[in-house]
Amino acid sequence: MARIGLLTGGGDCPGLNAVIRAIVRSGLAGGEHTFVGFRYGWAGVVEDHAEELTLQSTAGILPRGGTILGTSRTNPYADGQDGTAAIRRTLTERGVDALIPIGGEDTLGVALRLHREGVPIVGVPKTIDNDLGGTDVTFGFQTAVQIVTDAIDRLHTTAESHNRVMVIEVMGRHAGWIATHAGLAGGADAILVPERPFDIEEVVAHLRRRHERGRSFSIVVVAEGATPREGTLQVRPGTATDAFGHARLGGIGVTLEGEIERRTGYETRVTILGHVQRGGTPVAYDRVLASRFGVAAMDAVAAGRFGTMVGLHATEILEVPLEEALREPKLLDPSLYATAELFFG
Q1: CATH topology of domain 142-279
Q2: In sequence order, what are the beta bridge partners of 223?
Q3: Has 129 been annotated as catalytic?
Q4: Average pLDDT of span 104-111
Q5: Cα 342 from Cα 122, distance rounded (Å)
Q6: Is the pLDDT of residue 149 over 80?
Q7: Which strands sit side by side in the sheet containing 34-38, from one edge to the other?
Q8: Over 90: is that where the pLDDT of 248 sits?
Q9: Residue 5: beta bridge partners?
C-alpha cells in the first residue's frame, strides 16, 4: 500500500478532473492505496495545503471542466528560492510515497528538478497549446480546437453580413497547433502562427486579392504568440511576467485589427477568445485520453518507474523520461500548415 500525492499546476484545462478520477480509481482497484491532493499547484505542497482524495470525493467529476484541486503558476524556485526543503517536509509529514504532478513545461520542470533531488515523481502532461514534447497529443487540446472552430463558424456569418475582416486571436504561446487545427476546420482565410513570423504587407495583399475576386469578407486566425517579421510591424511588448518568467501575451489581434483596416480600408473587427478556450466540459476524446493518462501514471508509480512522464505515441500510452519530454517544445508540423495554406481563399 502506498500513499500518492497529486497536484495540478499551470493553466486550467478540460480533462484535469478526468485524470484525477482515473488515478484514484486505478489505485483503489489495484490495491489499498490512499491519495492526497495538494491545492493550487506547487503552492499546496510548499504550504502544506491538501485534502484527501477518495472514491466519493472524485465521483461525478469526469465531465467537469477546471480542476477540483485548483491550480496556480507558483514556482518553488522563483527569485532564487529553493523550495525543495519545504516540499520534502510536506511530503514527509503527509506520509506521501510518490507524487504525480499534472501540468505543462513549467510544472513538470519543477518535477524534474525534484526527481533529480530524489523525490519519487511520475508526470502527466497537460498543456492546452499541445506543445509539450514526449506526447503526440495533450488532453484539453481537442476541446480548445472545438471551441475555436465553433467561434469561427459563428464569426463567418457576421463577417459575411457586414463585409468585414474578422481577426480571431487564440491561444498558442510558442506553437500554432490550436490556430492551425481550428483555422483549417473553420475555413480561415489566413492563419498566423509563432513558428512563421508574418509580413503584414503579405497578409494585406492576400486580403486585397480576395476582395478583388469578389470575396467581400475574410477570416484571419492568429495565435497569441505570433510575431511580425523583424522591421515589418511595430508591436508593443508586454511587461507583465509570471512566476516562471513568461511574458503575459495577448494583443496581437488588436494590432492586426488596426493595421489591416488602416492599410486596406476594409472594416475590421477583432475577437479575442482568451480563457473561453479553457473553460467548460471536455469533449469525449479528451475525457478518454485524460483517463488513459491517469491509469498509466498510477501503473508507473506502482511499478516504481519514477522520473518519467506518460504520453501518447500513435495509439499507445508509453512512459518517457521527464528530461527527454522537456528537452524542447513540440512545434507545429510544417506539413500541416502547408495543408491549411491550400485553403487560404
Answers
A1: Rossmann fold (3.40.50)
A2: 170
A3: yes
A4: 96
A5: 41
A6: yes
A7: 50-53, 34-38, 3-8, 98-103, 122-125, 308-313, 316-321
A8: no
A9: 36, 99
SS3 296: helix
Cell digits of residue 219: 477570416
* Catalytic residue chosen out of the listed positions 12, 106, 129, 286: 129
Beta bridge partners of 36: 5, 52
DSSP annotation of 71 reads: -
What are 196's three cell numbers? Answer: 512563421
Classify 179 as helix, strand or coil. helix
CATH assignment, 3-140+282-325: 3.40.50.450
Residue 281, CA distances (Å) to 4, 119, 287, 291 in order: 26, 33, 9, 14
- Tell me the pLDDT of the chain averaged across its residues: 94
Residue spans per domain, the chain:
3-140+282-325, 142-279
Instruction: Summarize pLDDT for 282-327 with one digit per residue, the tens.
Output: 999 999 999 999 999 999 999 999 999 999 999 999 999 999 999 9
Residues 42/110, Cβ–Cβ less than 8 Å = yes
CA distances from 22 to 11, 286, 295 (A): 20, 13, 6
What residue type is assigned to position 239 of the chain? T
- The predicted-structure confidence for 30-59, as pLDDT tens digits, reads as follows 778 999 999 999 999 999 999 999 999 999
Domain 3-140+282-325 and domain 142-279, same fold? Reply is yes
**Is residue 290 a contact partner of residue 22, using CB atoms and an 8 Å limit?**
yes
CB 184 within 8 A of CB 343: yes
Among 295, 288, 310, residue whose Cα is nearest residue 121? 310
